[in-house]
Amino acid sequence: MINFSCNDAAYLNDLMELVRAFEQRTDEDVALSLSYFRLPGEFRAELHSDKLGGFVKFRRFPYTPADGMEAKRLEKRFLKMAIYDALVFLTGAQLPYGCLTGIRPTKLYAELGDAAHDTFLKDFSVRPEKVELIERIVKEQRGVRNPDPEKAADLFVFIPFCPTRCAYCSFVSMPVDRQRKLLRPYTDDLKEEILYLRETARKKGFSVRAVYIGGGTPTALPLEMLDEVLAACGGTGAEEFTVEAGRPDTITRDALALFKERGVTRVSVNPQTFSDETLVRIGRRHTSADVVKAYAAAKKAGFDVNMDLIAMLPGESAEDFFRSVDRAAELSPANVTVHTLYLKKGSDLRTGGYRSTENAEAERMVDYALAKLSAEGYEPYYMYRQKYTSGNLENVGYTKPGKACLYNMDIMEEDTTIFAAGAAAISKRVTPSKNLIERCANYKEPLEYVKHFDAVMARQRAFWGEE
């Protein structure tokens, strides 16, 4: 237990992310207090603890921010560096990503330019092998990132329905059988929002680089309704048109034929694991054989296929996970994304008391995936990190040569404007010349989205400058 306090609550939530990561890796009882001060040309952090007969540590950083935004960014960075060093000393624990807690380490690495390597190693205390992984991703993205962020945008559509709710899921998604009455009004509103966003993008001079229909499981929607959504999204001339058909039990011959007719180029077939026993534990109705069958049908139909695997699912050993990675590599999809299990408050696993504390096991799993997929010709091409992740690790997407999923990069690197429709969707306006990102969030719950759809549209019009 780490009892942490700070003389100013402004950064407390951000700093607690780092403290909680240490709590996952140590049984030490530590009381740590932080005070910080802004002085001319200097930012000072003072840390005090009752450990070791009274521990006191001072850190001083050069401090000449250009404006308030840079001051906030620098101060949080300095405080995390100071806390990390103190907690390493007091607990003996270390974290694979050092003092970094942000979602997008590759974005930060790219922004730092030539200084990135040494900054990540020496200032942020990121492990050398993780720095190497980040560098590989940044290199792989060259030539594939959005070449004209001022003029090329993405269209994202959210369909929040699934056949069942997975035990680890905290997304705004609902079992489709319980929401039959909501499907028609949700589909009608969603189509209207999509068409408005497409027309707005056209008026503002944007071409559409990628279309991504995510969920949930979009293929849980009745086929005639899904067709209406696909038709609303189609004909954009996008380089890539992806549908998350993640549950293999929803991938039918008719669905694949519809995708072809509507111009879809890529589908997701997500096993999460190739262990039938684990699939039952996490609340899925399909088997690993269903995954292989759905994958073969999607490949035969000519689609690029994305697959997801999750390390540290309940009841799985490292060897179980290794077998899933081996099976995915044998099938050879265009992309494999390896997630590390994270437990947010809304998931059934977390509310049921499940905790994943086997950090060494988590590291063995992600290390194996990197080595195996690299040996099979894949390159890591995007990364993100989340709170409450097993081992404080990462999620990494791997691609076959020339098969990177454009939307995955665009959303993670935040260099592309995104027109987003549906419940919980967040439109994002990116202005690189001003280093500015603006967001417009829809209602999270599907029922609230439908009930307040007039307000949703009014907010979108205001955000895009239509009112």
List its salient traits:
single chain; 467 residues; alpha/beta; nine-stranded mixed beta sheet; four-stranded mixed beta sheet; 22% strand; globular
Quick summary:
This protein has 467 residues and is α/β, with parallel strands linked by helices. The protein has helices spanning 12-23, 68-91, 105-112, 116-123, 128-141, 180-203, 223-233, 253-261, 276-281, 288-300, 318-331, 348-351, 359-375, 406-413, 446-451, 453-463, and strands at residues 2-6, 30-39, 42-49, 55-62, 152-159, 161-162, 174-175, 207-215, 240-244, 266-268, 304-311, 335-340, 379-384, 395-399, 418-421, 426-431, 436-441.
How are the secondary structure elements laid out?
Blueprint: E1 2-6, H1 12-23, E2 30-39, E3 42-49, E4 55-62, H2 68-91, H3 105-112, H4 116-123, H5 128-141, E5 152-159, E6 161-162, E7 174-175, H6 180-203, E8 207-215, H7 223-233, E9 240-244, H8 253-261, E10 266-268, H9 276-281, H10 288-300, E11 304-311, H11 318-331, E12 335-340, H12 348-351, H13 359-375, E13 379-384, E14 395-399, H14 406-413, E15 418-421, E16 426-431, E17 436-441, H15 446-451, H16 453-463
Parallel strand pairs: 1-2, 5-8, 5-15, 6-7, 8-9, 9-10, 10-11, 11-12
Antiparallel strand pairs: 2-3, 3-4, 12-14, 13-14, 16-17
